[in-house]
Amino acid sequence: MAIALAAGLAGLAGLSGGAGAARAADGKAVYAAVCQACHQDAGKGAAGVAPPLKSAVVKATTAKTRDYVPLVVLNGLSGPIESEGLSFQTVMPPQGHLSDEEIAAVTHYVTQTLNGAKGAKVDAKAVAALRAGKAPSAADLRAMRSRP
Questions:
Q1: How far is the C-alpha of 20 from the C-alpha of 98, rounded, in Å?
Q2: pLDDT digit string (tens) for 113-130?
Q3: Closest by Cα among 105, 94, 99 to 141
Q4: pLDDT score for 40
Q5: Helix 138-145 crosses helix 68-75 at what angle (to 10 degrees)?
């Protein structure tokens, strides 16, 4: 009976989009709680305050640059950047207090849901490895923006 119930629930999850949909939903909740105040609804950004996250830079995330978004979430970003033709000179504080799962979920939401990026997924294990590694400088992170 328990096996049949588990199989039925797994089937229902598959109908609603499965783990990917759940991860996107969790990421949306993390985004709403942590990111939306500055980056606004649907990642549109706020002129002079926070760059849009629905952008060509994020959409161009590839396997080579897939770590950019989670590294910015973990370490923050300061200094001049350009996004969608607008210049920004603001400071994003690090969000290292978020769990690896939350960072993976919000990364998925920003890259996949808001931007439609394909194939550059980041999971909690990858975030844990980034967290354990040497933190990149703001200059390193800004350089990652220009390397699609």
A1: 20
A2: 998 887 768 999 999 999
A3: 94
A4: 96
A5: 150
